[in-house]
């Protein structure tokens, strides 16, 4: 399973790139919202690092390995949530995610069917299914600052520290993130995990 690639950007296609990783070239598909932000994530040597979703596309006579790329783990997490909706496979999700993930997450959380129907391949019924499946589960993704893609690494077992790491990954300053966490816990001391904490932070942010 290929979960990450780091190599020299060889060329670009329509919402896909070819990365040269030590002499081996990999074609990586990506949603338009990710593809549009590539330039700010390529270093001076033309090196690009992508978090990847790797799967086999089954056809009657063969199975084709497919790589889908993201600029950070949070984007990939949203993608993996999105494809849990019935009828939305990986390729359909790549096509649909042509707007900032934060905007899509907000639309899901608010049940905004009109917005969701503007996504390629998403009609009325599919939009309803997305809301039914994911509403109240994707709040933290509304905190993504989509103009930036730099990842802050580091794992921890403590769920408050985990929430802090995610906020840092989403480009919030450390002091700002700590204050957001503290205020959320003061409002709802019963919060018991990072997902609940991030969803509460998101809800308060959109109320401002």
List keywords for this structure.
globular, OB fold (Dihydrolipoamide Acetyltransferase, E2P), alpha+beta, DNA polymerase, domain 1, 9 helices, 5 strands, 5-stranded antiparallel beta sheet, 20% strand, Helicase, Ruva Protein, domain 3, single chain, 208 residues
What order do the helices and strands come in, and which of them pair?
Layout: E1 4-12, E2 16-21, E3 24-29, H1 32-35, E4 47-58, E5 63-70, H2 73-82, H3 90-96, H4 101-110, H5 113-116, H6 124-134, H7 159-169, H8 174-187, H9 194-207
Antiparallel strand pairs: 1-2, 1-4, 2-3, 4-5
Could you characterize the architecture of this molecule?
The chain has 208 residues and is an alpha+beta fold. The chain has three domains: 4-70, OB fold (Dihydrolipoamide Acetyltransferase, E2P) (Beta Barrel); 74-141, DNA polymerase, domain 1 (Orthogonal Bundle); 152-207, Helicase, Ruva Protein, domain 3 (Orthogonal Bundle), CATH 1.10.8. It is built from nine helices and five strands; from the N terminus they run βββαββαααααααα. The chain has helices spanning 32-35, 73-82, 90-96, 101-110, 113-116, 124-134, 159-169, 174-187, 194-207; strands spanning 4-12, 16-21, 24-29, 47-58, 63-70. It has a five-stranded antiparallel sheet with strand order 3-2-1-4-5, with helices on one face. A hairpin with a 3-residue loop joins strand 1 (4-12) and strand 2. Helix 7 crosses helix 8. The termini are far apart.
Multimeric organization:
single chain
Task: Work out the radius of gyration.
Answer: 18 Å
- CATH homolog superfamily of the largest domain: 5' to 3' exonuclease, C-terminal subdomain
- The strand order across the widest sheet is 3-2-1-4-5
Name the CATH class of the largest domain: Mainly Alpha
Element order: H for helix, E for strand? EEEHEEHHHHHHHH
Beta percentage is 15-25%
What is the molecular shape? globular
Mean pLDDT: 87
What's the helical proportion of residues?
A: 40-55%
* Count of β-strands: 5
Kindly, what is the distance between the CA atoms of the first and last residues, rounded to a whole number of angstroms? 42 Å
- Largest sheet descriptor: 5 strands, antiparallel
Can you tell me the CATH topology of the largest domain?
DNA polymerase, domain 1
Low-confidence stretches: 147-157
- Helix-strand makeup class: alpha+beta
Number of domains: 3
Name given to the CATH architecture of the largest domain? Orthogonal Bundle
């Amino acid at each position: 399973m290929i979960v990450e690639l780091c190599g020299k950007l060889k060329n670009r296609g329509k919402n896909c790139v070819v990365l040269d990783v030590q002499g081996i070239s990999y074609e990586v598909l990506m949603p338009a919202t990710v593809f549009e932000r590539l330039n700010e994530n390529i270093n001076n040597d033309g090196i690009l690092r992508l978090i990847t979703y790797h799967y086999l596309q089954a056809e009657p006579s063969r199975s084709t390995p497919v790589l889908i790329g993201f600029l950070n783990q949070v984007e990939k997490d949203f993608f993996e949530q999105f494809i849990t909706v019935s009828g939305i496979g990986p390729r359909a999700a790549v096509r649909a995610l042509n707007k900032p993930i934060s905007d899509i997450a907000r639309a899901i959380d608010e049940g905004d069917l009109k917005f969701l129907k503007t996504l390629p391949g998403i009609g009325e019924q599919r939009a309803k299914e997305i809301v039914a499946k994911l509403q109240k589960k994707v709040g933290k993704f509304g905190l993504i600052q989509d103009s930036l893609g730099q990842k802050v690494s580091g794992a921890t077992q403590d769920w408050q520290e985990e929430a802090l790491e995610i906020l840092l990954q989403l480009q919030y300053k450390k002091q700002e993130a700590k204050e957001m966490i503290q205020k959320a816990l003061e409002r709802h001391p019963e919060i018991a995990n990072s997902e609940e904490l991030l969803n509460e932070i998101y809800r308060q942010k959109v109320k401002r």
